[in-house]
Design a protein that fits this description.
This protein has 288 residues and is of the alpha/beta class. 40% of the residues lie in helices and 23% in strands. It is elongated, with a radius of gyration of 25 Å.
Length: 288
């Protein structure tokens, strides 16, 4: 078995179309078909179900694909580690940010101050190739991740809102409120939905937004209230906005940092991980 066969198989599995795979690989379709047939003959099983010209990855193909992905990842990790050993390693670090995005500018600043050779790549829409991921969960322990912060959630209101003058808000006070919400793609949306469902409370959503900055502007325009984290969104609670807890609806989230277990952890990634953990430890102390 050759690495080239594995490469070709992975593209065919992704497209489930010999013609498209051949186009992506810049090779002739008959040559690709012959390569696939030799691979299946060597393995002793068909990897695709065939119906006319249509091919579909079958159970054996899915099993083989899993190991192909592991082989490919191992080879890439070996290349990265050898480059680092020779002093030619990349300083690019992919960071997927699913939570605490308001803190990222300061974190990037600290990374660049620590080592200007490190080039952070920040992704808020997800990144399968991420080296590190910052995310939040309702659980304190989440796999092999590091806990960065435990954070209460509450409600933010314009000062002009009728409830803003109350220092103790109850769930029944929220019945007539109009709420702004983060989009359904955001992890915070699902965390807040979890607590609302447990409390049998269904907020009246007037608009969905995908950015804390946009939510702040809408709140300042007295467009409603919003459930938000207290610490990482603290900069929002200004310019006529106030934060309150909902006394009979306690909510909290846990912010985690996870490394990609399938990728080689370079010195640049280790440095970024340490800086992120140190930053959150210092940031959390401000709220004790």
């Amino acid at each position: 078995m050759e690495l080239l066969q594995i490469k070709y198989f992975r593209v065919i599995a992704e497209t489930e179309n010999i013609s498209k795979a051949a186009e992506q690989l810049y090779i002739a379709q008959p040559s690709l078909s012959q390569t696939l047939k030799r691979l299946e003959d060597e393995l002793g099983v068909p990897l695709f179900d065939r119906k006319g010209r249509k091919i579909t990855l079958n159970k054996a193909g899915r099993v083989f694909l899993k190991y192909c992905d592991e082989i490919t990842a191992s080879i890439e990790n070996a290349r990265l580690e050898l480059e680092e050993l020779k002093g030619e390693g990349t300083s690019d670090v992919n960071i997927s940010v699913r939570s605490a995005s308001l803190l990222i500018p300061e974190i990037i600043k600290k990374i660049r101050e620590k080592d200007s050779r490190i080039m952070p790549h920040i992704f808020q829409s997800g990144c399968e190739d991420a080296d590190l991921m910052i995310y939040s969960d309702i659980a304190e322990h989440s796999g092999s991740s590091e806990l960065l912060m435990r954070e209460p959630l509450g409600i933010v209101l314009p000062e002009s809102h009728p409830l803003a003058c109350k220092f103790e808000i109850c769930r029944r006070d929220l019945g007539q409120c109009s709420f702004l919400s983060l989009s359904r793609e955001c992890s915070l949306y699902h965390i807040i939905s979890h607590f609302c469902e447990n409390a049998n409370f269904r907020p009246n959503i007037s608009a969905y937004v995908d950015s804390p900055a946009l939510m702040r502007e809408l709140l300042k325009m007295d467009m409603g209230a919003a459930f938000v984290p207290k610490f990482t969104w603290a900069d929002l609670f200004c310019d006529g906005l106030v934060f309150r807890y909902v006394s009979d609806m306690p909510m909290e989230r846990f912010v985690h940092l996870a490394a990609n277990e399938n990728k080689y952890v370079s010195e640049a990634v280790k440095s970024c991980r340490d800086i992120i953990m140190g930053y959150f430890a210092e940031y959390a102390r401000k709220f004790r």
